Amino acid sequence: MHHWWGSPCEINRAGGGPGSFGAMSKAAWLPTRKSTQIDDYHGDQVADPYRWLEDSNSEETRRWVQAQNQLTEEFLSQVPSRAELRQRLTEIWDYPTYSVPFERGGLWFQQRNSGLQDQSVYYVMASPDAEDARALLDPNVLSDDGSVSVQVVEASDDGALFAYATSEAGSDWATWRVRDVASGQDLPDVVDWCKNPHAAWNKDGSGFYYSATERAAPQGSVAGDVGLERIFLHRLGTAQDDDELVFEAPEEPEWLPFVMVSDDGRFVIIHVTIGTAPETRVEVVDLEAPGAGLRPLVDDFASLARVIGNVGETFLVLTDDDAERHRIVAVELRAPDRANWREIVPERGALLLGARTCGGHIVCHYLQDACSRLVIFDMEGNQVRDLDIPPVVAVAARYDESGIVGHAQKDLFQFELRSFADPGTLWSHNVKTGESKVLRRSLARIRPDQMVCEEVFVVASDGAGIPLFLTRRHDLHPNGEVPVLLYGYGGFNVPITPDFNRSDALFVERGGLLAVACLRGGGEYGKSWYEAGRLANKQRVFDDFCDCARWLVSSGWSTSKKIAINGASNGGLLVGACLVQHPELFGAAVPEVGVMDMLRFHKFTRGWAWKSDFGDPDDPEEYRWLRAYSPLQNIEPGTCYPPTLVTTGDHDDRVIPGHSYKFAAALQEAAPQGCASPVLIRVEAQTGHGAGKPTSKSIAERADVLAFLDAVLS
Asked: Which residues contact 73 (CB under 8 A, 6 or more apart)?
């Protein structure tokens, strides 16, 4: 087995000798223009010299991006293993993949990718494990460069119609169209102005409910604001301007509604959150009572509340009301007050992540120390059986939190099991017979039997136990010099569970240790765990991550100089904050599409929605929290930070690329003369926050990240 972790590669630019990075000293950086911009934040005068980089469309910013990409390319082009890494990563990537199939009207629908297709293709089949399938929708023909992707699909109950939402260049903006399943032809219907789209067909297939914003901002704009979110009914064959308004709250611009239709087709169910907070109110429309309008099922934001099924006017609701790790209650539409809630599935020691009704049963997805368990109950809450699931795996929750793909009136449900060594095995289970069946095993070109996955618990500085997943080759053992890739997220109540990543698998294959941390602020253990890393407690997330890095050294695995940290989006914030707070703990950092300016995140696209997790910079007290850890504002001039590769997409309209641009410019400026740590930024064209990225671009980006780590983890 070839080992690529050894002495640093030779970078000979502007005077650097073999095996050194002197070439990347401050003298080699491209100068970034600094303005005199200073803002007053509650009496604090805060300089923002790179404000101009927030405008992604300006010619000056484009020239800056082009020059920075050229600098990064010059560095990476001299990494000897780059071509080898890309070739091997392409080999690992090149295997057939299949999504969890779902059924409508006796037809089965599934995404498939032959291996290296830029976008996966949607097929229609006669059975969930059928080999023969008819291509229904191929996103690869929608653009020349693979940049048009399908974000989400919804098939009508009879399987005759297939609604799909496309986006361009990774944008969160999407446009709905409808395809006739029998003919494969699109209907004339077009529905646009959809941000983070979702939809639900009515029972007879005459139309679908969807969310869309006011036409208040340029569609596809990176920096523009996003209008009020509303719910409409689109009837096939009519213009979008004639769509029926079902829900809006103009007096509450931060309310975000999500629409679904009950499996029996009787109710339109609207979940509403304030920004990205988990606390939910729920309203329903009874379609059997024309003109009745919206009726409250949960009329406040006092708890998490998620409808998972119904029997007539009795709704099953997953909630954290009086249940730290969630329970399921029955709520009667005629008497929805909390005092009348009836417990069906009580709280257990494990977190109830999600559930749904299937064939007269309730299928519950639990997390036990961030690993999945599936438990089946009858409709009265009596436990029927546990499914036999291996340890250190997770049910892939791609469709909703439950990860269960099924229907209330069907006995069969499907799910996917993934781990750090298994790219995905598709299963089905019959709730009536108790039979489980493997639909399809992964055909990935890796050797899972050569990999070891385990979970350890790091004692944090305040005594809490932080789950840390370790994945390695079976012949790799602690020797104090193992290269480590430490990944984290820690926010928005999102659980980090075992999952497969192709570039991580290559890192492990070639002698590295993958360490994945479950930090407070995430959704692994329930409300208290989440609250412990939210708002005023956000610093706790960074402390947990740094404690994991320290453990990797004290446990004998590695040394700080061989630990690289990585995270994306909120995880990019994590990496940026830890990098500037404790540069001595790390040998490299790769923050991706990160939120780096915590004083201005709320001013772009839907960044205001994140105030529920971060706080509000316009509030004096909350500003103090944010100012204390904001990566951009805490960079110390004259500090030689560890080698850093910042990545982003030039069309990211969720976390605008200006966050990454400003952070990279400030890090480069901070480096003292003679600092040998490269600080680079890689900006991918025609991509956004990550979703829908073409396979070819994903391979190129991940290979470059691995090449960077190869070069700097000496």
From this structure: none
